[in-house]
Amino acid sequence: MTHIFILSCSSVQLRLERFPKHKDGDRFRSFNSKLYHFKWLEYSVSQDSVYCFYCRHFSENSSISDYKCDIFIVAGYRQWKKCYGKSEKEKHLLSFSHCKAVANYEAYNSTLEKGSVISQIRKEHAILIKENRHYLVTLCEILLTITQQKIGVRESVSLFRASAIDIESESIDYGPHSGNFLSLLSLVGNHDEVIARRIKHGPRNAKCTHHSVQNALLDIMAGEVKNKIFEEMQTES
Ligand SMILES: [Zn+2]
Fold first, then answer.
1. String of b and e for 172-202 (b: at least 16 CB within 10 Å)?
2. Separation of alpha carbons 1 and 80, rounded Å
C-alpha cells in the first residue's frame, strides 16, 4: 500500500491506492481523494472520516455549536454519498465557525511571518530610537563641522530666510539664504533617507532645527569636551 503525503496549506492530505469501504445507505462507498481540492479537508485512516483542518486547529470553543462544525472537528464525517453532493460542503464552508476558523488561521500565519503585535511594536520602537539617535548625531556632526571651520551657523538676521520645505519635492532645499547649518542639513538629507524623512514628514517640534536646540547641542558637546579634558588631566596626574 503506497502512502503519499501532500502538505497543502499546512493540512495533511493522505493519499492511498484504495480507501476502505463502508456501508453507506444501499451501497458500499469510500472516500475519494478528489475531495482534496478542498484545502481544508483532511482524511483520517483510523476513523475513515474527514475533518476540517481549519476548524480542528483554529476554531473557538464558543462557535462549535454552529452547523455541524463539531462533526468536522471531533466525530469526523463519513456520509460519503452526502459528502459528494453540494449541500454538505457548502453548508460547512458558509458556516460562521468555519469562516472564523479560517480568519484565525490567516491571523496565525500573519503572526508567524511578522511576529506578534507586541514584538512588532517593540521592533518599531527600536527603529524609532535608532533613527532619532541617527538624526541627532547628524545634527551634532554638522554643528561640529561648522564650529571647526569657524563659520557662522546661519547668515545675518537681515538675510536669514529659511523657506518652507516642499515635502512633495524629491530634493530638500531651504532656500538661498538659509545659512550654513540648514544648507548642510539639506545636503545630507538629499543623500540620507532617515534624515530626509525626518525633515519632510517629522513633527515640527521634533526637527530640532531651531536655534535654541542648536545652542543646547553645542553646550552639550562643549560639556563633553570639558569632561574629556578633565578626565585626561586626572589620569595624567
Ligand atoms: Zn471548517
1. bebeebbbbbbbbbbebbeeeebbbebbeee
2. 22
Residue pLDDT, tens place only, 95-138: 888 888 888 888 888 877 777 777 878 888 999 999 999 999 99
The residue whose grid cell reads 491571523 is 107
Query: Which DSSP helix (H) or strand (E) runs through 167?
Result: none
Task: Using the mean position of ligand 1's atoms as its centre, give its distance from the Cα of residue 44 in Å.
Answer: 15
Cα 55 to averaged position of ligand 1 atoms, centre (Å): 4
Can you tell me the distance from the alpha carbon of 215 to that of 179, in angstroms, rounded to the nearest whole number? 15
Which long-range contacts link 182-189 to residues 24+ away (Cβ below 8 Å)? 182/154, 182/209, 184/142, 184/145, 184/146, 185/138, 185/139, 185/142, 185/209, 188/138, 188/142
CA of 11 to the centre of ligand 1 (A): 12
The 8-class DSSP code of residue 177 comes to B
Instruction: Tell me how far the alpha carbon of residue 25 lies from the centroid of ligand 1, in angstroms.
Output: 25
Cell of 109: 500565519
Alpha carbon of 40 to ligand 1 centroid (Å): 7
Mean per-residue pLDDT over the chain, rounded: 82
pLDDT of 84 higher than 80: no
**Residues 219-224, mean pLDDT to the nearest whole number:** 93
- Ion ligand 1: residues, CB within 5 A, are 52, 54-55, 98
